[in-house]
């Protein structure tokens, strides 16, 4: 059993980390839950206890938990802007780290996290759970078997709605120092899938807007053209403005010998599947799951456990976590400077402060 502490007991921790821990109860022992808002930690402790598992101890300061030598690993589900410091403190206390997306908000911080995990021989994993969506896994097999032929172009479209009450619920959302805009928050999953499919990037040109959310600092719309090193082109379209509710998140992949479109609410439904002698997929008629989070935290936690016990890279490593955030940062930098951005580069969401001048809180 891996002995684990959960740091940050808000929405995603309550909805998904708790479920992943309960469904993997034979390999994880949740011994501590931490949140400065004690009731939130207590709520998760109650859920764990009600599921028939041992009640975790409650903490309001994560530093106290990091002092415990009996804890092997921490999961971090705090506001995005705190991921970096908590990850570094945890690794300096010799804990493996599974961190929510986005892993951090600057290239410098991400590089430091990756370097520290290597130096200390600790696992660093990132919650891009949509990689485990069954349709995505099916497409991955085709990609690994090279059945697409040369990849030509791909598009990720995140067409969702986030209204004023969503931002009022948690004031850190949409701020440059703790979050970023819709590209960094809602769209990083899809951007990860696009880059995971198409590979290394040469150059990105981006544009962001705040069309409809004058009360947040960051963007509610983002778009980009990516030039991949293999010559393929990627298109990103992400919005939080779709009237009146979430419409779709769709990944389209066009190769010389294959076409796949995975859509539905959140890239969990095969819409189109065409390869030589194949024009459909058995999963095609499955219902679309009704949550944008999918069910990927359960296999992601299991994989992270296996990465520790077998001393191998997690399926979604720190390097993987970095690539998607790097794309978002490149879009921000490109929007700010009005020109394409070549990889590698250095940038931070903090450098976007004041980009949209019309903030009304
Ligand atoms: N993987 C996904 O699909 C997914 C979905 C939603 C959110 N997220 C990510 O999860 C993170 C949390 O999002 P959320 O919507 O749950 O936010 P939230 O505001 O509901 O929860 C964050 C919690 O962290 C707590 N916290 C703050 N500082 C802390 C500290 N020092 N120690 C312990 N706890 C602390 C807060 O009190 C709060 O309860 C964000 O990074 C977000 O991007 C991921």
- CATH class designation of the largest domain: Alpha Beta
| Molecular shape | globular
Strand content: 15-25%
Query: How much is the average pLDDT?
Result: 97
How many separate domains make up the residues?
2
> What small molecules are bound in this structure?
nicotinamide-adenine-dinucleotide
Helix content: 25-40%
Report the biggest beta sheet as strand number plus sense, adding barrel if it closes.
8 strands, mixed
Helix and strand sequence: EHEHEHEHEHEHEHHHEEEEEEHHE
Radius of gyration equals 20 Å
The CATH topology label of the largest domain is Dihydrodipicolinate Reductase, domain 2
* Class derived from helix and strand content: alpha/beta
Key traits:
11 helices; six-stranded parallel beta sheet; alpha/beta; Dihydrodipicolinate Reductase, domain 2; Rossmann fold; 361 residues; binds nicotinamide-adenine-dinucleotide; eight-stranded mixed beta sheet; 14 strands
Description:
The chain is of the alpha/beta class. It has two domains: 2-129, NAD(P)-binding Rossmann-like Domain (Rossmann fold), CATH 3.40.50; 133-295 and 323-352, Dihydrodipicolinate Reductase, domain 2 (2-Layer Sandwich), CATH 3.30.360. It is 33% helix and 23% strand. The chain has eleven helices and 14 strands. It has an eight-stranded mixed beta sheet with strand order 13-12-11-7-10-9-8-14. A six-stranded parallel beta sheet has the order 3-2-1-4-5-6, with helices on both faces. Strand 4, helix 4 (83-92) and strand 5 form a beta-alpha-beta unit. Helix 1 (11-23) crosses helix 10, helix 4 packs parallel to helix 5 (107-119) and helix 9 crosses helix 11 (318-337). The longest helix is centred in the C-terminal third of the chain and has 20 residues, at 318-337. The chain starts with a strand and ends in a 19-residue tail after the last strand. The mean pLDDT is 97. Bound molecules: nicotinamide-adenine-dinucleotide. Residues 7-13, 34-37, 40, 62, 77-80, 82, 100-101, 127, 129, 170, 185, 293 line the site of nicotinamide-adenine-dinucleotide (NAD).
């Amino acid at each position: 059993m891996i002995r684990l502490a959960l740091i940050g007991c808000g929405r995603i921790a309550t909805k998904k980390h708790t479920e992943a821990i309960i469904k993997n109860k034979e390999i994880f022992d949740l011994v501590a839950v931490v949140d400065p808002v004690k009731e939130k930690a207590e709520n998760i402790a109650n859920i764990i206890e009600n599921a028939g598992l041992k009640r975790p101890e409650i903490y309001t300061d994560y530093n106290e938990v990091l002092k415990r030598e009996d804890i092997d690993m921490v999961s971090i589900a705090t506001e995005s802007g705190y991921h970096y410091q908590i990850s570094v403190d945890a690794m300096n206390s010799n804990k493996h780290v599974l961190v929510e997306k986005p892993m951090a908000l600057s290239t410098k911080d991400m590089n430091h996290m990756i370097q520290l995990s290597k130096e200390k021989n600790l696992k660093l994993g990132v919650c891009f759970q949509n990689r485990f969506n069954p349709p995505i896994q099916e497409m991955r097999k085709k990609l690994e078997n090279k059945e697409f032929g040369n990849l030509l172009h791909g598009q990720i479209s995140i067409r969702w709605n986030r209204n004023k009450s969503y931002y009022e619920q948690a004031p850190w959302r949409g701020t440059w120092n703790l979050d970023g805009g819709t590209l960094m928050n809602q769209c990083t999953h899809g951007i990860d899938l696009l880059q995971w499919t198409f590979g290394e990037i040469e150059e990105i040109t981006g544009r962001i807007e705040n069309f409809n959310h004058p009360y947040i600092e960051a963007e509610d719309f983002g778009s980009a053209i990516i030039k991949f090193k293999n010559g393929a082109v990627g298109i990103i379209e992400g919005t939080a403005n779709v009237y009146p509710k979430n419409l779709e998140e769709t990944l389209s992949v066009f190769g010389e010998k294959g076409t796949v479109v995975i859509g539905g609410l959140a890239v969990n439904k095969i819409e189109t599947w065409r390869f030589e002698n194949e024009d459909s997929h058995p999963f095609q008629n499955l219902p679309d799951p009704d949550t944008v989070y999918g069910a990927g935290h359960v296999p992601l936690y299991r994989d992270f456990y296996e990465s520790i016990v077998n001393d191998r890279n997690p399926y979604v490593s720190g390097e993987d976590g970095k690539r998607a955030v790097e794309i978002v940062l490149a879009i921000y930098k490109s929007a700010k400077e009005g020109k394409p951005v070549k990889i590698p580069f250095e940038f931070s969401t903090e450098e976007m402060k004041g980009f949209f001048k019309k903030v009304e809180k």
